[in-house]
Predict the structure.
Amino acid sequence: MTTTGRVSFVGAGPGAADLITLRGARRIAAADVVIWAPTAVDAECVREHARADAELVDFSRVSPEEITDLYRRAAASRQVVVRLHSGDAATGGGVQEQHDLCVRLGLEVEVVPGVSVVAAAAAKIGRELTLTEASSTVLISPESSELVSEFAALQTTMAATVSGARTGQFVEKLLQGGYSEATPVVVAYKVSQADELVVHTTVGELESVVKQHKLYRPTLFLVGAAVKAPTRRVSASVTASVDEPLRAARPTRWSRRAASRIATRVDEPVPTRADEAVVTRPDEPIPASEPAHAPAEPNPAWTAVEGIQQSMRKPAEEPAPKPKLTVVAAEKPKPPTVRASTSTQKKKPVPRKPKRTAGN
């Protein structure tokens, strides 16, 4: 527990529960209060990583004054608060104002970066936004949407988050800035979520596409030659429309996979040298000078991550035992059986020649 209370502004990524960073998941798992907007962050992300006893606050249903009171309560009660932002917390969402407010209240403040919506959309269409002919990308938030025509004059790749209801005005400013009606545009709505929508179109057809799919909420538009869809060889019998949305399958729930693999995870304490030097029997009590280690609380975020890791790892196959070499000696021919005689034959004495003397 902190001494003054802590507030972490966590980038939850584009929305999918498995596109949040490990640090962000750990912050959510340790939070007493989680502030989030269901329209911007997938509910599965909060259900998977938050504690069962955590207080969940819908950001869209409270006023700025109530959020300030919540921060004051966290400072007084030393609570840990997480404010979830869609995408990357450092690229919008009023983080700067809330960050400075928490600093003035005496809270510990941290910003945890996340996967941006622009990066997720570019990965979805398989395009690189910084090509040679368009070496830079301009990011336009809803707050700076009035400067679209000025940024369009740069003729670079543009990533703009604009309300779908104002698509007509957005198209007019693109044309005023110098983009042609044939300029490629990618419409990305709720990327990585279950009901995501990704459509390739042009500046001239952008307004009609948005109306066709009834996109009235803030939507990401990628504009420029860098997002042009690659040409594919298709059969003559296959017909496809460039306006047909690409819908992804519903993401698999981490909780189901993790629950089937591991229920909890308890981090074992690392033994110190003093612990290694003392050897006790199971029935022998631990001396008072050496307190027993308290088991660490299971971490819900790491439980889910470990479940994924364990499901991806295949158990190593034990090598088959090598057959033992049995050395078989070749059969040697048996020596012939010799029977010893019972009577011993005496050797005949050899006659010796008489020695010659000198007189002979």
Observations:
- Residues 64-77 form the longest helix (14 residues).
- The longest strand covers residues 157-163.
- The CA atoms of residues 285 and 345 lie 88 Å apart.
- Residues 261-282, 289-293, 325-330 have pLDDT under 50 and may be disordered.
